[in-house]
Specification:
Strand order of the largest sheet: 1-6-5-4
Helix content: 40-55%
Number of helices: 5
Length: about 240
Amino acid sequence: MSQSSIENLTSDLEELRRLAESATRIRVQQMLSIDIRKLETDLEQQKNALASKESQSPASSKPPASVPGDCKRYRVELKEYAWDQSDKFIKIFVTVNDVQQVPEENVNVEFTENSFNLLIGNLNNKDYTFVVNHLLNNIDPSKSYRKVKSDMVAIYLAKQKPTKWAHLTLTAKRLQDMKDERVSKNAKESSDDPSNGLMKMMQQLYDSGDPETKRMINKAWHESQNKKSELQGAAYVE
């Protein structure tokens, strides 16, 4: 641990902050924010380690204690969640093992009117993220909040209007609309394959989508394939 490494981290942090200020895309801002928080944590840990080292007696023969900041932390994208709603809130329940063991300040959620980004810093030497963009309706960021529970983070999205949400995101709504359109086409067309245009649209959504988009498309694809297999099996029996 040295003063030069701390100075390098400080310079990296300043440059990331400048990039974050100039960024215009929400996803880029969120990614930079995650990196900034990680560097801030590492910088604080290295400063504390250096101060501790300088305060030790030079005659001490004990090796310096390992510092969490010395180890590279990996970023993990969370996938297990469920959601529910009341008149005032959309409730997101994200599964995170041992999350209750980290300090409260390590669990943060950034809210916008149509998205949120959960960041859990330094849990078992890993950083965890869960991002959902393109919410079905706008929320009130100032009234939204989170609670840390046993092996779970509960996120409360304050509705701007007390309307019932049929889906969590616009992506989910579009996928449902595409399914309905496919059913309608299948009823009208017998010889042509009506799924070609649908698959192209799904591929475009997948290529440009966020993690939530890709999760929804994968689910829809597997459901479609299972249904197709069942129909083929039934036709074979007949």
